[in-house]
From TrEMBL:
Keywords recorded for this protein, A-Z: Aminoacyl-tRNA synthetase, ATP-binding, Cytoplasm, Ligase, Nucleotide-binding, Protein biosynthesis
Assigned EC number: 6.1.1.22
Cellular compartment(s): Cytoplasm
Keyword Nucleotidyltransferase: no
Pfam families associated with the record: tRNA-synt_2, tRNA_anti-codon
GO cellular component: cytoplasm
Source organism of this protein record: Bacillus taeanensis
Reactions it catalyzes: tRNA(Asn) + L-asparagine + ATP = L-asparaginyl-tRNA(Asn) + AMP + diphosphate + H(+)
Protein name in the entry: Asparagine--tRNA ligase
Amino acid sequence: MKTTISQVSQHVEETVTIGAWIANKRSSGKIQFLQLRDGTGFIQGVMVKKEVSEEAWTAAKDLTQESAVTVTGIVRADERSPSGFELTVINVDVISESVDYPITPKEHGTEFLMDNRHLWIRSKKQHAILRIRNELIRATYEFFNDNGFTKVDPPILTGSSAEGTTSLFHTKYFDEDAYLSQSGQLYMEAAAMAFGRVFSFGPTFRAEKSKTRRHLIEFWMIEPEMAFVDHEESLEIQEQYVSYMVQSVLKNCKLELKTLNRDLSKLENVKAPFPRISYDKAIEMLKEKGFDDIEWGEDFGAPHETAIAESFDKPVFITNYPKDIKAFYMKPDPNRDDVVLCADLIAPEGYGEIIGGSQRIDDYELMKQRYEEHNLSEEAYKWYLELRKFGSVPHSGFGLGLERTVAWISGAEHVRETIPFPRLLNRLYP
């Protein structure tokens, strides 16, 4: 019976055939231990010389790392195995040999591994991280579909910037200037006025010359936008969504988390509601922690976010940032005109901001004033202004960075390991 490694639990004491690659191999003379992987998981195959044909034994003995094979064997339950199962190998058919595979079981430098990223993703740790990424994607669609959201795809090529920044990738769009999208948010606001609650899930691009462990040039964002939803309700949806993702990984990625030696207790505690502190309070906390140089009105960097997160055992919202350091579209706090109705969600364990969100300005005249203050082209943004003219309503939204979230949940040290083929300041290969 043909099956996969992830399905062997359904075939205990049955003879199965699996298409696989040789991840590693060792021998103790009359027994060969084959570490097999097939994309769905890893399993050890044990071949005993006296129990197989001479041809099968010789074929297995000559196997090299990453050779492709078809393996036939009997599935055995084995408590010592990480997966709980082992394969008693009866026969091995070689599909193709692998010669001089570059990534051996020894230690390799990061740049070497990145140069061989197309092969590195086969390894156990990288495989586990990317499987967790896949689970977060699956859980994202499930959460928003189950909560009445419609998926809408904003354009990747745009004529303007959502954030009004200069860190844009420029290209020519026939005889016009165009840019790779930094965010789909403005378009999602238009979609929310048509569908009520929407979300997008797509690539975004930031031409920031940053080399930190939290930054990528190309990354994926989940950007929900919600009509008739104020800032407070948006925060509740955010914490429910993040809780849902974490609990889904705990439920469906037990083996991957074990492979990564992830401390499950830190994840098990991630359940809504999350603590909230104001920007004002965050400034006080930082000064108490020795950050004497931070002043009100300054944005937070990675060390500041990490220091704040250390005081909590869950993600924490920092709310009501100063108006002058946030985007033009954020709604002012009705009780204070110097701060806006916004929040950043800071992940625990030093992983920094994973969500930025706010209630959006819904007043036509105020938005027009913001255009003037930020020197925004009314020609380029006319359509966005018109959303406040034709049936404007209170609305809110947020953006979650997938790679930072994967890094936090998987415990990865650097976001470059959380995307199949990272684009970094010095890397466009492979």
